[in-house]
Amino acid sequence: xxxxxxxxxxxxxxxxxxxxxxxxxxxxxxxxxxxxxxxxxxxxxxxxxxxxxxxxxxxxxxxxxxxxxxxxxxxxxxxxxxxxxxxxxxxxxxxxxxxxxxxxxxxxxxxxxxxxxxxxxxxxxxxxxxxxxxxxxxxxxxxxxxxxxxxxxxxxxxxxxxxxxxxxxxxxxxxxxxxxxxxxxxxxxxxxxxxxxxxxxxxxxxxxxxxxxxxxxxxxxxxxxxxxxxxxxxxxxxxxxxxxxxxxxxxxxxxxxxxxxxxxxxxxxxxxxxxxxxxxxxxxxxxxxxxxxxxxxxxxxxxxxxxxxxxxxxxxxxxxxxxxxxxxxxxxxxxxxxxxxxxxxxxxxxxxxxxxxxxxxxxxxxxxxxxxxx
Length: 374
Description:
By secondary structure, the protein is mainly alpha-helical. Helix content is 48%, strand content 11%. Residues 60-65 have low confidence and may be disordered.
């Protein structure tokens, strides 16, 4: 008998037989390869080596004349590494190694069809229980890999249509005016640099990584402007010889539009001058030349909101709350979009603007006052 899920059996002739997925044919049907050994351990070790070969983790024992998809995944990653930010490359590498190679790495590129991609999508959703957003990110990477691969097979590579899973609309937490006043009162009491940073985010819409990267030299008291030109992230450390799995990086903001200047209100400008240290190179949240990492700031915010009796508040809640307050007071949408660092006003309206019931009632009253149908 085989051990559960291992596909290793003892044959009648006394040898052990281990079965592994070798490839899929054009219809998507599995083709198995077989390894044999005098003992269970020998057969298993051979099958594990062959699985590694299929996934591209080890060289193929024989040159087949045609590389499997895992090979093109690696080549695509090499080409992307010089084009994208380090954090983006790390995300691509994680997607490839964790999701694409294990399930599709053994395929020959010319055998990949829409039904195989659809099956891959369903397994990600149902077996791995990934969110629709995560699955879409994986499929976008796969599509880019296949486009890269198609250039190696000019005129003969199949055109594949991708069906992306529909993302369900998620509830976005926004602080009510009463909750915001409560939080601000808490932050102003015995204010330190970290509390000041949270207040700054609540009144400017800064992202958590942008706030962690902000230095006092980026805040102009004279012009009442905040210059956003960097972000802090903890990412996987892919450097050869590194003993750490992750590392903190300070790099360019999320996109070109994220590099921006944000005007400050008089209240925030006065607060900045009160908290400003002598060292302009110091980071806002620490007062030293060493930055605070986003995870630490998240822990601090969780502590603050718990003591205020606020549930379900994350750092991005502050950004959503800022955008919503701006709309409530009649902010011009193009200006708000640029302050938030968005590429278009559509992103601002669809993702970051949440109308309160009070605002809806006020607008209905305006309609009633202007209506000719009394």
